[in-house]
């Protein structure tokens, strides 16, 4: 759906590609301007856990508490979330960029090995791994799934929470992890 031309300034108008679509590389570059909270999505239990760094998580409703998480179907977490019908959403604080890199696969560590010795994790209602040091840990039961192109949209019913106060969140913007600073 195109915006009415009177809503676009002449400086912001761009020509549509000849195939009337947006190429994936340009879209990825544009989306780098969308700041997102950095989370680690987790699934499984000791010995069979996996997790991934994600920014495609948002609240769906507060009554009842529901959220959505978008996961690439090729990600190791995808199948485990479906199989266990549960997942954890662990929102990271500004000092956890290295952990985000580990779960993003940038350190060559895979699946259960990403969780270290396991001491930093807890289990709440569903058994999905919740990071003790996360800013927020949301334990979700998978209640719905919608497949779209390369990803699935998982709808989670929040069954339990773990909350820490006083930390600034880690965000992803411009292709890099960043900390938030108050606006003056």
In short:
The chain is mainly β.
- Shape call: globular
Strand order of the largest sheet: 3-2-6-9-10-5-4
Portion of residues in beta strands equals: 35-45%
Order of helices and strands: HEEEEEHEHEEEEEE
Report on the biggest sheet.
7 strands, antiparallel
Distance between the termini: 37 Å
Number of helices: 3
Q: Low-confidence parts, pLDDT < 50 over ≥5 residues?
A: 1-17
Mean pLDDT, to the nearest integer, reads: 89
Radius of gyration: 18 Å
Provide the structure class.
mainly beta
Describe this protein with a few key phrases.
184 residues; mainly beta; seven-stranded antiparallel beta sheet
Task: Describe what you observe in this structure.
This protein has 184 residues and is mostly beta strands. Helix content is 13%, strand content 41%. The protein has 3 helices and 12 strands, in the order αβββββαβαββββββ. The protein has helices at residues 24-31, 76-84, 97-103; strands at 36-37, 39-45, 48-54, 57-62, 65-72, 86-91, 121-123, 129-131, 136-148, 151-163, 170-173, 176-179. A 7-stranded antiparallel beta sheet has the order 3-2-6-9-10-5-4, sandwiched between helices. A 3-stranded antiparallel beta sheet has the order 1-11-12, with no helix packed on it. A hairpin with a 2-residue loop joins β2 and β3 (48-54). The chain is globular and about 40 Å long. The termini are far apart. Mean pLDDT is 89; it is low at 1-17.
């Amino acid at each position: 759906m195109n915006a009415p031309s009177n809503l676009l300034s002449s400086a912001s108008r761009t020509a549509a590609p000849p195939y009337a679509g947006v190429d994936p590389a340009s879209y990825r570059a544009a989306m780098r301007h969308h700041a997102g909270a950095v989370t680690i999505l987790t699934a499984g239990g000791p010995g069979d856990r996996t997790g991934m760094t994600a920014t495609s998580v948002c609240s769906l409703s507060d009554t009842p508490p529901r959220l959505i998480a978008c996961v690439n179907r090729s990600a190791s977490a995808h199948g485990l979330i479906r199989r266990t019908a549960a997942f954890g959403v662990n929102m990271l604080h500004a000092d956890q960029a290295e952990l985000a890199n580990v779960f993003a696969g940038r350190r060559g560590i895979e699946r259960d090995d990403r969780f270290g010795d396991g001491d930093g994790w807890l289990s709440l209602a569903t058994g999905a791994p919740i990071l003790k040091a996360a800013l927020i840990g949301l334990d979700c039961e998978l209640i719905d799934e919608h497949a779209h192109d390369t990803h699935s949209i998982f709808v989670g019913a929040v069954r339990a929470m773990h909350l820490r106060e006083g930390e600034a969140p880690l965000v992803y913007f411009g292709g890099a992890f960043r900390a938030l600073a108050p606006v003056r």
